[in-house]
Amino acid sequence: MTADAAAHVAFLRGLRAVRQFRPDPVPEPAVTDILDVVRWSGSASNQQPFEVVLVQDRDTLRALASMEGYAAHLAGAPLAAVLVMANRRPEQDTFDEGRLSERIMLAAAAHGLGSSIGWLRGAGPEQAKRLLDIPLDRLVRTAISIGYPTEEAARRGGRRRPLASIVHRERYGRPDG
Amino acid sequence: MTADAAAHVAFLRGLRAVRQFRPDPVPEPAVTDILDVVRWSGSASNQQPFEVVLVQDRDTLRALASMEGYAAHLAGAPLAAVLVMANRRPEQDTFDEGRLSERIMLAAAAHGLGSSIGWLRGAGPEQAKRLLDIPLDRLVRTAISIGYPTEEAARRGGRRRPLASIVHRERYGRPDG
Q1: pTM, rounded to two decimals
Q2: By CA distance, what is A86's nearest residue in B?
Q3: Nearest C-alpha of chain A: how many angstroms from B100?
Q4: Average pLDDT across chain A, whole number
Q5: Is residue A9 part of a domain?
Q6: Cα A113–B116–B71 angle (5° rounding)?
Q7: Which domain holds residue B124?
Q8: Cβ contacts (< 8 Å) between B35 and chain A: which residues?
Q9: How many Cβ pairs closer than 8 A exist between chain A and B?
Q10: Has residue B75 been placed in a domain?
Q11: Cβ pair B108, B54 in contact under 8 A
Q12: Domain contains B4
């Protein structure tokens, strides 16, 4: 095992959601890298059924945060990435949306930035589409807040299920190890 | 920007699907790291609605590859990770399944392993559940093949949409840059 492998694995397993941000803006080189990682995202049949609206305007962020759903943390973030899915194949799009969200969070983390996935629900998606001039036939649900974590948010640990309750070998019901 | 940030971003953007594998088994330290990254996967409301069945048995891999869907590449892989989702909230589960899949592919890539997402469709999911003793009420759809890429597969480039067609600033229809 190489040092690179260990560093990448530690990086992947270290990702945590962050919902409290310092006011500092996200530097453009970080934005550029996040977009580059977005561009190289894999997707079902390599269709890349996604677009991204980057929002830095404070009033727009507050408006998104106030919409129905679970995206209140956008109000305090200097940047949001709103995902716009083609909505031709909802099941694949939802799966690809998850892949893309994970990559955006990781690309942000590479730059020491925290992030959190927000979901719009109920009337939220249509309100967001109208606010952002997004064609109404698209699937808009995920808005990811991005920014430098506050000291308290950076310290937070997170908890997870034990591995034995998640992993099976060869057949379900045969625990690992 | 630190050297670590650049290395992690290059790692993230370098991920490509691999469907042709060398016969070598996946070393246990790599399996351990993949499982660790699985365990620390984020999910909606931190519910972690997932389990994983790891399959290395050749006959089982071939049987999965022959099922209805798009998972033929499992036949030539030394390892598959079959995702088992709780199926209590299908929309969130599908999104979380995408996040988890991306992490598994990245954790494999950290070890120089290639991977590809296979999907079971039609009669495939139920056949897979019966074969692997998975309770029939679960959502089983994704089987990720994992192994060392053949030389040819490792060389393959991939293509992606240009960034200008994906990214908008502040409002949809306002291209980046």
Answers
A1: 0.95
A2: B166
A3: 8
A4: 94
A5: no
A6: 140
A7: 16-151
A8: 163, 166-167, 176
A9: 222
A10: yes
A11: no
A12: no
